[in-house]
User: Fold this.
Amino acid sequence: MASIGFGFTLAGGQKALAEVLADEAAKKAAAKHILTMGLDATLNQFPGRVGTPHVVWVHGAPEFKAAVERQSQGQIYVEVHDGGALGGQAELLKKVQQGAVQAGSCSMQNAAQLVPVLNVLDVPYAIGRDDNFWRLLFSKEFNDIFRKGTEDRRLVVAFAHPWRRKVMLSHNVTTQVRRPEDLAGMKIRVTASKLEQMAFQILPASATPIAWAETFSALKDGVMEGLHLAPGSGYDVGMAPVIGQIIDTDWMYNTDSIWLNKTWLDALDPDLKEAVMEGAFEAQTHVFDTYKEILRDTFGIMPDSPADAGFRAAGTEMTFLTESERAIWEKTLSVADNPSLQEAIDTYGREAYDTAVKVARSDADTAPVRWWKL
Assistant:
């Protein structure tokens, strides 16, 4: 059952498990190529949930599997190993790079360890609001700089889903945070992102590296006051009961992505390679079309979220900054006022950074395009 992904067996609906397994076995036997895809989360973990039944950072994976198999007319079978069966994100990406598996899930932030130029996407407030990220992702400039940077390391971004990170504080924090100085003295859990760590060195909070498995208890017991994360990811791992407030600081993203091995992809016949890319386009379009609904109705973190959605239903207070308040955060974390950020940009790619900012803040369209044809 693990060979096709537990979530896909559940997704059989009215079909008996044996019938689902038989159908998948028949498709696999008839296929000319097997695309093994590892996911570091479980599919269909929340059956019947509004927006997506899957853990959010593998959103779009079922659509990708279905689209590739259909577009290739059954010549490619996508074999899914979900639930972290093939490892966590960093381990998965290395397996994809090495060709041990053909596809896997990993955020661009974790991928930056292998592709350093991706770090410039995390410079505080470099990209801005969601439309800016989509505009950048579907641009030729993104192809020429960032996709090329990954492909030089035998990795291809199949599709991506950017969720903006926010400051999330535990119920133990009684102060409403609206300005950077309100974080003074607080211990905030951060990831391995170099630019995220640098941002917290600038802020009056203390960046606290702590194992992910220990984060819930650390928040509950007051060992630390908060974490910096895309709220959807926090909700899906059960953080809602210990999160008292979320502040839409929004200076960087969790850019969760599905990656392909470039060597495997390039070895396919041209029509089958195109089928994989069309499958990626369908998955990317699905993510683009549904992300606002998921943020609003699944995780309850938008101003117009219903009262019974996600964090709102859990009683978490959402703090939406005014434009003047947000300007203070942007000023505090501005590149112009922080030499350490300037140095990081020079290290990871000044031209890449300048181009990303220019494209993201242009008036180009944000709708998905077939990026590999630009």
User: Anything to note?
Assistant: The first helix runs from residue 6 to 10. Residues 47 and 175 are 36 Å apart (CA to CA). The domain at 21-364 is CATH 3.40.190.170 (D-Maltodextrin-Binding Protein; domain 2). The longest strand covers residues 155-164.
